[in-house]
Automatic annotation (TrEMBL):
Subcellular location(s) of the protein: Nucleus, Nucleoplasm
GO MF: sequence-specific DNA binding; zinc ion binding
Keyword Transit peptide annotated: no
Family that this chain belongs to: Belongs to the THAP1 family.
Pfam families, per the entry: THAP
Domain of life of the source: Eukaryota
InterPro entries, alphabetized: THAP1/10, THAP_Znf, THAP_Znf_sf
The protein, known as: THAP domain-containing protein 4
Signal peptide stretch: none
This protein's UniProt keywords: Cell cycle, Coiled coil, DNA-binding, Metal-binding, Nucleus, Transcription, Transcription regulation, Zinc, Zinc-finger
Every THAP-type domain range: 1-84
Coiled coil ranges: none
Amino acid sequence: MHCCVLGCSSNTRILRGKPRNGVAFHRFPKNEYSRKLWVNAINRPNWQPNVNSSVCTQHFAEEFINRTYMSGPKLRENAVPTIFHWSQQAQESESSTPPDSVT
């Protein structure tokens, strides 16, 4: 299993036999409204999740994660992925780009 977020390298092969540090994989909600929120948040053009698509815990704010289960982290009902490395990379590249010179 792997995370469907672009640029995320989380997958069960990499994590197999290593400490998962609270990383789990969460399937898309069956509720159509919640599912659309996830798809919009992930922002992959012309892509729709299938029954095997999942998002790893690293893309959810801590407030959306319930860590009291022995089997691993579970998402709260209102969880939506909001943490993306590509959004940080875009911000970093914008801030490191010098402004255009005006002549």
